[in-house]
Amino acid sequence: MATFLYRLGRGSYRLRWLVLAVWILVVAGVGAAAATLQQETNPEFVLPGTESQEAFDLLEDRFPEMAADGGSAQIVIQSENGEPLTSEANTAAIDALAAVMADSPQIASVTSPLATGPNGEPIGMLSAEDQTIGVMQVAYAEPAMELDEDTVAYLEAAVADAEDQGVRVEVGGDVLQAMPETSATELIGIGVALVVLIITFGALLAAGLPIITAVLGVMLTTAGILAATSFMNVSESTGTLASMIGLAVGIDYALFILSRYRSELAKDGRVEDRRARADAMGRAVGTAGSAVFFAGLTVIVALLGLSVVNIPFLTEMAVAAAVTVLIAVVIAVTLLPAFAGFAGKRIFTGRQRRRIAAGVHGTKPNGGKRWAGFVTRHPILVALIGILGLGALAYPATDLELGLPDAGSSGEETTQRQAYDLISEGFGPGFNGQLMIVGDLDDGVDAMAAAQDVTAELNDIDGIALVGQAVPNQAGDTLLVTVIPEAAPADEATNQLVHDIRGVLADDTDADWAVTGATALNIDISDNLNDALLPYMLIVVGLAALILLLVFRSILVPLTATLGFMLSVFAALGALVAVFQWGWGAELFNVDQPGPIMSMMPILMIGLVFGLAMDYQIFLVTRVREAYVHGADPKAAIVDGYGHSSRVVVAAALIMISVFAAFIFSAESLIASMGFALAAAVVFDAFVVRMAIIPAVMALIGRGAWWIPKWLDRILPNVDVEGEKLQQHLAKDAPEDERELVGASK
């Protein structure tokens, strides 16, 4: 592997114009495909095999007039003058708004809070106590993601006009989504990355190359996603995860290879020699590039493993992110060397070149060597402090409560949150999470008798605030019952209620009953995620451990790497629970309402952070193994390896932390909690596990860290990440007058 990558890196450096031309053709081709094939897509949110999805499908078939999968809006109206909404002035405002909404594009139905039935009975949602809060139910003929921009703009304009008539109006539902802008956050991340790279390299040109290559990789993936819309429905959020991961790993991979390239050049002292620069790039790609390849492979395995959850949109996002990582790896080992070739000796500043010529560049012991020396001298102390500290941070994770966020977790200033709070105030929290009970009646079953039976059964279940009237379809073979829970949608009591209803109705011999609605759908997503967590961990951790076994040819190094990762993830989850669930430091982190942690968080953290953690493990420990293979004793190898690679690992971790931390102060608690969790996980894993616990444990184990059974060593292919075979190849093929130089580079 190292020899192949050496030739690839050296060839890309020397044939830089050809490499650049090929990449220009690739970019032009993908860009042209995106421009010509891009189409508007209508992605469907489906959960195959779940009860809520089957009920939705049944509603669409048996109650087509309901537009069950259509978008909805709850226009919440509150009297501002203290008079009931039934007063003359308020009634006029409500009637005017209802009339305007009835003419909205793509509208299916509008139910005024003042609406009455055929016999004059009220059927609208009007608060019982003082009648100062009402809800206008608006249903659209198309799903929320398929609504035209004109339809959404029409709703916003109608609401603005109603507010001018003396009533307060807020809008909930899925039509108006408070989607946060991420472009500014990405720019912040790029800006911080550039600053860190300038400090790391001390040269503006060298700092700019990782940024350029990473952005190019993200642009290619984005264009590919746009082109894919011609043959598949792609959600707008598909590129979000791909951009975040692609930007982070793209910078990291280029950083590691470019740092190794500069290190090789500085060591040789022949910055002015073109041939020496090409050879140095070949060695950099052969060694650091091997680590990049296997680190990228680990990230790809972790991402593709998300498909075991069987949630299509999550699989779609994971595949897009995995492709981005693959592109980042290919760019790092081909295009980056070409760019370095164009930069030539300017990859160093003039002052750095003079120091290299004088033989004083990088001769002082760096912070990495000093830290590794301290760790190897006090391994028990460092390991105990690190493990006990992360263990203490992980303790709150024992109280982890999972759920999916609803409008109640939105920022207090958003109209969705205001509507949610008004509905809770006027009707009770359960009205924000109505459940739909759908019954497929057996042949010959009387619909009216079945309606009475199911209503009686539901009224006997604890946790239900209101059971609506059972409504049959036109054919009389299906019943629909609306149920209002007592608790809020994200409350654990509502989760239990859904399972209780399903358990009670499962014994009905006259119909097949199913519970659906947005709340039930969220619960099914959470159940799927929880059920898939253990298989996912086994698959991802198992495959990644095999990759690490192949890379390090050791039993204990992959084992300690994996255990350390689990410790950092649990510590990050503990910190997340303490802040976002318990409310510790809530004001500091802009947490409006502490509550359950998003169900996707553990599995996303495991997938994303595991890949990144293994990046740092591979980049750090391959240099340790390289020193060990070349004759250093175990502790000296740790000091030497960390002296060479810890600086760039710290830089890479700081870049990653900055990108994730920028999301913490988002108005959306979902985004804020994800940014907090990922930033915390990288802090714990990079600085505590990889920089402290792992070298301490390796120092304690000594040579045993590199033990592997002889039979296993024989059957494992030698991927030569540390470059031992590469050095032999270079020494064999080099001219006689250069062999001494090659040997000195070992």
TrEMBL record:
This is MMPL family transporter. Belongs to the resistance-nodulation-cell division (RND) (TC 2.A.6) family. MmpL subfamily. InterPro entries: MMPL_dom, Mycobact_MmpL, SSD. GO terms for cellular component: plasma membrane. Keywords: Cell membrane, Membrane, Transmembrane, Transmembrane helix. Its main location: membrane. It comes from Glycomyces terrestris. It is a multi-pass membrane protein. It comes from the Bacteria. Gene3D superfamilies: Multidrug efflux transporter AcrB transmembrane domain. Residues 212-342 form the SSD domain. The chain crosses the membrane at residues 187-207, 214-234, 240-259, 280-306, 318-344, 379-397, 533-552, 564-584, 596-616, 648-665, 671-693. The keyword Secreted does not apply. It is found in: Cell membrane.
